[in-house]
Amino acid sequence: DRQVHEVQSYMGRxxxxxxxxxxxxxxxxxxxxxxxxxxxERLEILSSKEPPNKRQNAKLxxxxxxxxxxxxxxxxxxxxxxxYLREQQERQREELLARxxxxxxxxxxxxxxxxxxxxxxxxxxxxxxxxLIGSGTNILQGLRDQRVTLKGTHKKILDVANMLGLSNTVMxxxxxxxxxxKFLMLGGMAVTCxxxxxxxxxxx
Length: 204
Fold this sequence. Notes:
Blueprint: H1 2-14, H2 19-48, H3 52-98, H4 106-203
Helix pairs in contact: 1-2, 1-3, 2-3
InterPro entries: GOSR2/Membrin/Bos1 (IPR027027)
Keywords: Acetylation, Coiled coil, Endoplasmic reticulum, Golgi apparatus, Membrane, Protein transport, Transmembrane, Transmembrane helix, Transport
Function: Involved in transport of proteins from the cis/medial-Golgi to the trans-Golgi network.
């Protein structure tokens, strides 16, 4: 417990330490944390040798200390990560302020050229997609027109077929009527000849 409290007190110094001494405080905290972890490993071994009635309480105590130290280790790493990001941002800001740009600065023209090329590639891709969509639309419209044309042709074929069917029926009726008229004519001629024969026979 005493070592954990010492580490906690050192953690409080981190926020108030200057840039030159903060690394020393971090190293001191890390060394104390490593020492505590080493002591906890020995305590775990000793707790496993305790009598059964005391072993559970000893193990719980060691686990609690281990949890507290792990929490301190995480806090230290988070502080170091934030410090690293802060220092990196400060370096970048100082480099940006100290840098002098000219009209022929190659470091600035290269990213601009890459950006222009990327935008041009995107525009070409968009145009290609528009052309592809337009071609697809024209193909679909052509298929619709062909479908309408095929429907009209099919209707005309049905109409012609119906007309042909009607014409065939009419022709058959005419042929049948002509055949009947032929027999009527022949029958009439035969009757007329018979009447003329009978008249001549009786009159003579």
